[in-house]
């Protein structure tokens, strides 16, 4: 499964699934498949009544958010966000990458009654952004990848907070309390695993703990779902409370399944949208707001805020700890790839209007597509510059001079 862990393959699976979903949705079988995806599967078990599409976006996608939370906790504890000095630049850049796209969206949709869609262009897809960097960025220094990863993780933290606070309907406090109890028990139970215990390999003494963690994790998801908070937040909570070393091993175990199954399935079902047969002028302001705000807003927001942060980080002697402006621009282009989280927030923001959800989905796909093409070109140019500079610093000696 090594290749499935690769960032470039993960991005490839995601892109293929999204394109395939959009293509099939516009074939003769498309309407039937869209209907089937939205058909509610009332199992009669514990009051769960979700469509196939929602079982993926509310259920399986919680695994993806669980892994994001583990990465976030690691970065905050021992990684590149564990001090103010390290976190300042990516945090400022991430803030710019949220505020500016949201502002552009609100400006383009003012008076339309569609202001609720402002969170859609604020997200960055970690898998896609790192995948494009891996494919086209041979020679790019590690510090640039670290900056992109830190920015994307913080961006996802903002997205998680947005989902938790802005897309919670009629919260049921008793179920929030039950979820808090089961999540606490999950965290405590995870600490029963010895730091070096290979429980995922199946040694019998640790299987009861593993089974208890699974039961408590499912219970936390169930109570979160009943509480009115979006169920994917359960994955975030569990990832944050789990003991760090067992969480790292769990992340390693689940990552291939997230890359090869969870994210592609979500991308496929989210992209099941029939392209509307209307003139461009008849598309809703939400479509244009997302289409412009995602690639352009991210580029402007991250670049301006990142450049400001880089200037602030100058030391008294004149040297600076920040990145070069060209590197910040390159990361800003990659930040415009919204995809997974943007698709989810589009579905949440316009849940009451199927037509606007479809247009928002198309806008996310097109806007992310523009960002992919632009960032691939910019990353390729920047990587070539780094390779050329490395070759100049370390020229190969001519045989006759050896």
Keywords:
single chain, 402 residues, mainly alpha, Na+/H+ antiporter like fold, two-stranded antiparallel sheet, globular
- The quaternary state of the protein chains shown equals single chain
Total number of domains: 1
Write the CATH fold name. Na+/H+ antiporter like fold
Second-tier CATH architecture: Up-down Bundle
Question: Globular, elongated, flat, extended or rod-shaped: what is the shape?
Answer: globular
Give a description of the structure.
Its main location: membrane. InterPro entries: Na/H_antiporter_dom_sf, NhaA. One of its GO terms (biological process) is regulation of pH. This protein is an all-alpha fold and 402 residues long. It has one domain: Na+/H+ antiporter like domain (Na+/H+ antiporter like fold, Up-down Bundle), CATH 1.20.1530. The chain contains 15 helices and 2 strands. It has helices at 2-5, 7-25, 30-37, 52-77, 84-109, 126-136, 142-166, 173-190, 207-227, 232-241, 244-270, 285-312, 325-335, 339-349, 354-393; strands at 40-42, 49-51. A two-stranded antiparallel ribbon has the order 1-2. A hairpin with a 6-residue loop joins strand 1 (40-42) and strand 2 (49-51). Helix 4 crosses helix 7 (142-166) and helix 8 (173-190) packs parallel to helix 10 (232-241). The longest helix has 40 residues, at 354-393. It is globular.
């Amino acid at each position: 499964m090594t290749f499935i862990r690769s960032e470039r393959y993960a991005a490839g699976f995601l892109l293929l699934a999204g394109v395939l979903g959009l293509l099939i949705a516009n074939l003769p079988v498309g309407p039937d498949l869209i209907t089937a995806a939205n058909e509610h599967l009332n199992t009669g078990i514990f009051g769960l009544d979700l469509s196939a599409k929602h079982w993926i976006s509310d259920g399986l996608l919680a695994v993806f958010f669980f892994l994001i939370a583990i990465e976030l906790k690691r970065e905050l504890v021992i990684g590149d966000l564990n001090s103010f000095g390290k976190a300042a630049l990516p945090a400022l850049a991430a803030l710019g990458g949220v505020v500016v796209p949201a502002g552009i969206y609100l400006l383009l949709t003012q008076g339309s009654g569609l202001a609720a869609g402002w969170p859609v262009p604020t997200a960055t897809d970690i898998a896609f952004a790192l995948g494009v960097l891996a494919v086209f960025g041979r020679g790019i220094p590690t510090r640039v990848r670290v900056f992109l990863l830190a920015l994307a993780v913080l961006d996802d933290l903002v997205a998680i907070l947005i989902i938790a606070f802005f897309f919670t309907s009629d919260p049921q406090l008793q179920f929030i309390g039950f979820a808090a109890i089961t999540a606490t028990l999950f965290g405590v139970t995870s600490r029963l695993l010895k730091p070096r215990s290979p429980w995922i390999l199946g040694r019998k003494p640790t299987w009861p703990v593993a089974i208890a963690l699974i039961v408590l994790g499912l219970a936390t998801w169930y109570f979160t779902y009943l509480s009115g908070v979006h169920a994917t937040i359960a994955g975030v909570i569990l990832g944050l409370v789990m003991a760090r070393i067992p969480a790292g091993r769990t992340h390693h175990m689940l990552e291939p399944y997230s890359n090869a199954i969870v994210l592609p399935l979500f991308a496929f079902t989210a992209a099941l949208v029939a392209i509307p047969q209307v003139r461009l002028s008849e598309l809703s302001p939400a479509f244009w707001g997302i289409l412009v705000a995602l690639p352009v807003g991210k580029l402007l927001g991250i670049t301006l805020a990142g450049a400001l942060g880089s200037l602030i980080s100058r030391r008294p002697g004149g040297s600076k700890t920040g990145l070069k402006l060209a590197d910040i621009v390159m990361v800003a282009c990659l930040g415009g790839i919204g995809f997974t989280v943007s698709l989810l927030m589009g579905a949440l923001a316009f849940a009451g209007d199927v037509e606007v959800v479809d247009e928002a989905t198309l806008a996310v796909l097109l806007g992310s597509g523009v960002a992919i093409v632009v960032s691939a070109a910019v990353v390729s140019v920047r990587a070539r510059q780094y390779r050329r500079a490395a070759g100049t610093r370390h020229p190969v000696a001519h045989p006759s001079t050896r």
